[in-house]
């Protein structure tokens, strides 16, 4: 929900008031009185001629520092207040409102001939609005209070209920975010079909791809659906699950299947994945590589080998052992090249990534590290699949 | 090789225990892995040995108290459930 400043002036340029954008059909849920005209402060306690009264629609009470409420207020919305004793200038308070664009109200008419109309009468030409805030406006437009909603109480209850719900949701999100970095995880699942297709092709045939750099957008990496080189977690997760299913299938063709081994295969593969990620993390720490690889990136890279494993096992099911070995060999080499080309840009220094040979113990260590991470993938691929193809 | 998550947890606990029992004075200094031998080399990046020594020291410092709790729980569970 974003804030919008509601302008209630009609061309009156006072330093306290802001211009606003009001559009019809939007219901404001809450209002905070932000700027109060200077004369308000003096006129808090007013005489009976300007009696304090509640807004009869949104029930804003006198506790809101309002001297008088115009009946042109929209329920829980823009607050139009008229300063007493002012004749010419309809000086009003401006307020910042919270908008829920999902809640739309019917555009009710208002007595437009009211000379003290406080809102800009844009109802005649809805398209002619100040384009201050793109798309975030509240359409006050002088709705009369009475015919706004037939039951203001239910509207209020709805507003209160939705605000409660959003508060609860915020609380849960905040607490959950401490344990699981949910917002970071969401980035890794921002994929689409084209990306998945291209990435799968890249995993089995990485030889034609030229540019392996991850593109950034002002220091943050671009979402995977816009950049094929960005790591994602969708393919590893789906690959893991498919691997378990395919291994169950493969064991079934050898009459070795029981339902328990599905769980055993899953936990075995998961444990190997965790150990591999821990080993890579440890070695990255020992070699003191300054890299922006996060743990989730490493999980993603380690999960890419499941694709090759699935292809190998399926080929083994279809074509027997020779098919399995040939396909696995092809996939192993592809994953090896893929990992080297991807990790080279992340782990090695700038110059070394270009292919220039730089001597020095540290750069050699980094190269060895890259090679060993890449070499571990084919080993795991063979280790986790050889017992499936009989 | 059939691994379960439980065996992974067991392996991790055993490894952390192994790192925690390396005594600073009696053992690590004798083989040149003491903490006083790791300070130095401010200019360049620390080598692997220095990083390992730092790792051992930090694991010992951080995991000393939690390991007491984890080991007690492990002992009780193994006694009860075998």
Automatic annotation (TrEMBL), chain A:
Q: Please indicate if the UniProt record lists Nucleus as a keyword.
A: no
Transmembrane domains' residue ranges: 233-252, 264-286, 298-318, 324-344, 365-384
Give the principal location in a single coarse category. endoplasmic reticulum
Q: Which UniProt keywords apply?
A: Endoplasmic reticulum, Golgi apparatus, Membrane, Protein transport, Transmembrane, Transmembrane helix, Transport
In what way does this protein cross or attach to the membrane? Multi-pass membrane protein
Q: Which domain of life is it from?
A: Eukaryota
Where in or outside the cell is it found?
Endoplasmic reticulum membrane; Golgi apparatus membrane
Pfam families per record: YIF1 (PF03878)
Q: Name one GO cellular component term.
A: Golgi membrane
Q: What is one Gene Ontology biological process annotated in the Swiss-Prot or TrEMBL record?
A: endoplasmic reticulum to Golgi vesicle-mediated transport
What InterPro entries has UniProt attached to this entry? Yif1_fam
Q: Which family does it belong to?
A: Belongs to the YIF1 family.
Q: Which PANTHER family match?
A: PROTEIN YIF1B (PTHR14083:SF1), YIP1 INTERACTING FACTOR HOMOLOG YIF1 PROTEIN (PTHR14083)
Q: What does this protein do?
A: Has a role in transport between endoplasmic reticulum and Golgi.
Q: This chain belongs to which protein, by name?
A: Protein YIF1
Q: Which organism is it from?
A: Oncorhynchus tshawytscha
**Classification of source organism:** Eukaryota, Metazoa, Chordata, Craniata, Vertebrata
TrEMBL record, chain B:
Membrane-spanning ranges: 62-81
**PANTHER family membership:** IMMEDIATE EARLY RESPONSE 3-INTERACTING PROTEIN 1
What InterPro entries does this protein map onto? Yos1
Function, as annotated, reads:
Regulator of endoplasmic reticulum secretion that acts as a key determinant of brain size. Required for secretion of extracellular matrix proteins. Required for correct brain development by depositing sufficient extracellular matrix proteins for tissue integrity and the proliferation of neural progenitors. Acts as a regulator of the unfolded protein response (UPR).
Tagged with keyword Zinc: no
In its UniProt entry, what is this protein called?
Immediate early response 3-interacting protein 1
Q: Which GO terms describe its biological process?
A: endoplasmic reticulum to Golgi vesicle-mediated transport; protein transport
Recorded GO CC terms: COPII-coated ER to Golgi transport vesicle; endoplasmic reticulum membrane; Golgi membrane
Source organism per entry reads Hucho hucho (huchen)
Q: Where is this protein localized, as stated in its record?
A: Membrane
- Is the keyword NADP in the record? no
Q: Which domain of life is it from?
A: Eukaryota
Signal peptide limits:
1-18
Keywords carried by this UniProt record: Membrane, Protein transport, Signal, Transmembrane, Transmembrane helix, Transport
What family name appears in the similarity comment?
Belongs to the YOS1 family.
